[in-house]
Write a structure and sequence with these properties.
Elements (H helix, E strand, L loop, with lengths): L1 H21 L5 H18 L8 H29 L8 H31 L6 H12 L3 H7 L10
Helix pairs in contact: 2-3, 2-4, 4-5, 4-6
Length: about 160
C-alpha cells in the first residue's frame, strides 16, 4: 500500500513539475517571429516608392507582396504551432509577443524613413556601383534597418 501511495505521489509531483516547466515566457524564436510579423504588417500598410517604369514598379510591388505574404504565413504558422496563443499557462508570453510586434512595427517605420532619406541623398548619382555602395553605407548606419533585415535572412526556426 505504501508503495502505491509513493508511486501516486511521485506521478503527481512529476505532472506538477512538467506543468510548471511549461509555464514560461516567450522563447527567442517566438519573439523573433512576432517582431517580424509586426515589421511585415507595418510594411504592408506603407505606400511603395513609385518607380520611373510602371511595368517595373508593378513587378517589384508584386514580388514584395508575395515575399511578405510568404514570410507572414511562415512566422504566423510558427507561433500557432508553438501553441502560445492557445495555452492559458503562457498568457505572460503573449504580452511579450505583443511588445515584440510593436517593436517590429516601429523599426519598420524607422527603416522606411532611413531608406527614403538615403535614396533622396543619392538623387543624381549616375554610377550604379557607387550608388549601391553609398546606399548600403547609408542604410547600414541605422540599427533599425539592420534588425529588420533579419526577417528576410535565414534563421533558426524549425520550419
Amino acid at each position: 500500500m505504501r508503495g502505491l501511495c509513493a508511486i501516486a505521489l511521485l506521478a503527481v509531483c512529476i505532472d506538477c513539475g512538467q506543468a510548471g516547466a511549461q509555464v514560461s515566457g516567450a522563447t527567442d524564436n517566438e519573439l523573433y517571429a512576432a517582431y517580424c510579423i509586426g515589421a511585415i504588417r507595418n510594411a504592408e500598410s506603407e505606400p511603395g516608392h513609385p518607380a520611373s517604369d510602371p511595368k517595373l514598379e508593378e513587378q517589384v510591388h508584386s514580388a514584395g507582396v508575395a515575399l511578405r505574404q510568404q514570410l507572414l504565413g511562415r512566422f504566423s504558422g510558427y507561433l500557432a504551432a508553438t501553441g502560445i496563443f492557445t495555452d492559458a499557462r503562457r498568457a505572460n508570453a503573449a504580452i511579450s509577443l505583443y511588445a515584440a510586434m510593436t517593436h517590429g512595427a516601429a523599426d519598420d517605420q524607422q527603416a522606411a524613413a532611413t531608406t527614403s532619406a538615403c535614396e533622396r541623398s543619392l538623387i543624381g548619382e549616375t554610377n550604379n556601383r557607387l550608388w549601391v555602395s553609398k546606399y548600403s553605407s547609408c542604410v547600414n548606419l541605422d540599427p533599425a534597418v539592420l534588425r529588420e533585415m533579419r526577417c528576410v535572412l535565414p534563421d533558426n526556426l524549425p520550419f
